[in-house]
Specification:
The chain has 250 residues and is of the alpha/beta class. The chain is 40% helix and 21% strand. The strands form 3 sheets. It has a 5-stranded parallel β-sheet with strand order 2-1-3-4-5, with helices on both faces. Helix 2 runs parallel beside helix 3.
Amino acid sequence: MRILVVEDEEAIAKGLRFNFEREGYQVDLAADGPTALELYESAQPPIDLVVLDLMLPMMSGYEICRSLRRLDLDIPIMALTARTLSEDKVQAFDSGVDQYMTKPFSLPELLSRVRNLLDKRRRHLDRRSVRPTEDVVRFRDVTVDFGRFELRHQDEVYTMTTREQELLRYFLEHDGVVLSRARLQSDVWKDSPDISSRSIDNFVMRLRRMIEDDSGAPRHLLSVRGTGYRFVREPGSAEQSGDASSSVDG
């Protein structure tokens, strides 16, 4: 699994990477908030755990944590910091931290906590993933026949292209997950140089015209401003959250 370490002290960062890699994990390092967020959004395979210092240049660890939570409510985040005051811990947990460890730390304890968080992450992903291996998939008033390249929405029948099918299948497999354009480009288009962010947006707009009652106010294929998209198989009022927008971001 993949760990992002956000730490501006080089010796500590390299020490953490060394020990995590000995445990068999893939490790990325970032020394500041903007770099951390860029790495998080572009990482393939995706980041499974963030180990986060709170005293960082450019952005505090609290700000980084809140930004990560806007991208993924479920990503495990561990604060690893020299801050020991109770109010620091309260602010960290209020920002979305899952666990809090202070420096200096016990390496065996740190590795144990990391294993526990990653085990929970793995179980969560196993439960959450939807794998529509069947040829015919139904949600609300939409029926998709992948064998026939056909999508039926109410009384309309659409013939889908191979890429439209691949994109829709990918959204179905990641129901509720925020998917960046970079991730879609990598996983669906295999990093083809011919595809751009605008091309992905155009494909999404075509899917919206097929599956939405009103493509201008989508309920299934939501835009997440500044990031990408989130597919919601069974929309409800709670799904129209503050970080989602019905407009396509450029």
